[in-house]
Amino acid sequence: MERISVVLTTLNEEANIERCLKSVRWADEIVVVDSFSWDRTAELARRYTGRVYQHVYPGSSRQVQRGIEYATGDWILVIDADEEVTPPLAEAIRTVLREGTGNDGFRILRKPYAFGRWIEHGGWFPDYQFRLFRKSRYRPEHQEVHGGFTTDGRSGRLEELLLHHTYPTIYSYVEKMNDYTSLQVSNKLAADPGAQAPWHKLVLSPLSHFLRMFIVHKGYRDGFQGFVLALLDAAYTMLLYAKLWEYRMREREGEGKLPPITNVQLSLLKHRQ
Predict the structure, then answer these.
(1) Averaged pLDDT for residues 163-185
(2) What phi and psi, each to the nearest 5 degrees, are found at residue 182?
(3) Taking the model in full, what pTM does it have?
(4) Can you list the alpha helix ranges (DSSP code H) found in 46-151?
(5) Among candidate residues 119, 138, 167, the one where a domain is terminated
């Protein structure tokens, strides 16, 4: 039977790490790449694996790729510290390893938990993530935020659930939103160097985003949590375009420093604070 390595990256995940690692103890190997956490993350991780490494954070997909390079398994399962592999998903993966497959990778069905409720609508679910692949056949798709992996070979889907304990509080959402929207500016500029943020984008895009999530994708069926998520995602869209506008304004003025829009720039800013 082919071997599997689980790869995850961490930064101050003391609250999540044990739940995550307990769910993958069946794997042949667990590789953790920690970004110098200052809580007990690394200490707790070492209870489950001796393969814990520490590196400065260059971005999610690049940090994961470091872990893949350390891994020795034929297959790689990439998970986040706030995720949990359910027993049915673990069995489905073991079946792939035991029986073989013509696929070089699989998208896994992920279900999010936010503000005290499992979210099933609003565009949040179903959410298929490419997380399981042959080490010899994967290809990275690096971005400053939301980078990932794919394969040039054939891919399939696993319908068993990967649980995502994503936002326990609104504070945690807003904290991530500040970083993610800055990094998303970098993504937009990479895709379109001439990208702009006219006033109507700041006004209409958040409204359109809210209506799409809450009405079209039936976020209302997730109760008040669905309403709050739609509002927060609309605010995310507004903040993204506001930061793009700010970046272009400072670029035109040529005075002062440009806002931070890369992982390296954000890391330097936080260390100075």
Answers:
(1) 96
(2) -65, -45
(3) 0.94
(4) 60-70, 87-99
(5) 167
